[in-house]
Amino acid sequence: MTTVFGLIIQGKLPSTKVFENDRILAIKDIHPVAPVHILIMPKKEIPNLHSLQKEDWPLIGEIMEIAQSLAEEMGIADGYRVLTNNGTDAGQTVFHLHFHLIGGRVLDKLG
Ligand code: 5GP
Predict the structure, then answer these.
(1) Nearest to residue 15, comparing CAs of 25, 28, 32, 6?
(2) Distance of alpha carbon 99 from alpha carbon 93, whole angstroms
(3) Using an 8 Å Cβ cutoff, are 49 and 106 in contact?
(4) Which of 17, 93, 95 best tests ligand 1's pocket when mutated (most atoms within 8 Å of CB)?
């Protein structure tokens, strides 16, 4: 089922794009938790990491490469976090696979 990110990818909802190619879109998070908070997602509708199929794994490498480039571009190469929430218990609210790129301040320890 199409999510809010699916609608953004289709151009039916607005977003602030920071990167786009045929396979991947990166946008600013609407509710940033840090000075830099970008969401990097495949255009293909994949609900989350756990539902990835074997043929989709190259997308993850490309997303990590884009995260690295964006971190450099945003001036946060010295300290940033890339994460994905998988499933409701982990805090996933939009069921279209996306990775958060967060930085620009000292980040809280996990746990
Ligand atoms: P999740 O909780 O699924 O890991 O992350 C969803 C993220 O999407 C949240 O950080 C939330 O702020 C962001 N978000 C939800 N709706 C929109 C939207 O319409 N536009 C943008 N740019 N971000 C959104």
Answers:
(1) 28
(2) 13
(3) no
(4) 93
DSSP state of 87: S
Residue nearest to atom 24 of ligand 1 (CA): 30
Give the pLDDT score at 111: 82
**Ligand 1 mean position, distance from CA 30 (Å):** 6
CA-to-CA distance for 15 and 87, rounded, in angstroms? 24
Active site positions, annotated = 98
Provide the token pair at 41. Answer: 């997602």
HSE of 27, CA atoms in CB hemisphere, 13 A: 19
- 50-85 burial, b at 16+ Cβ within 10 Å, e below that, comes to eebeeeeeebeeebeebbeebbeebebeeebbbebb
Q: Is the pTM of this model over 0.90?
A: yes
pLDDT (tens digit, 9 = 90+) per residue, 21-50? 999 999 999 999 999 999 999 999 999 999
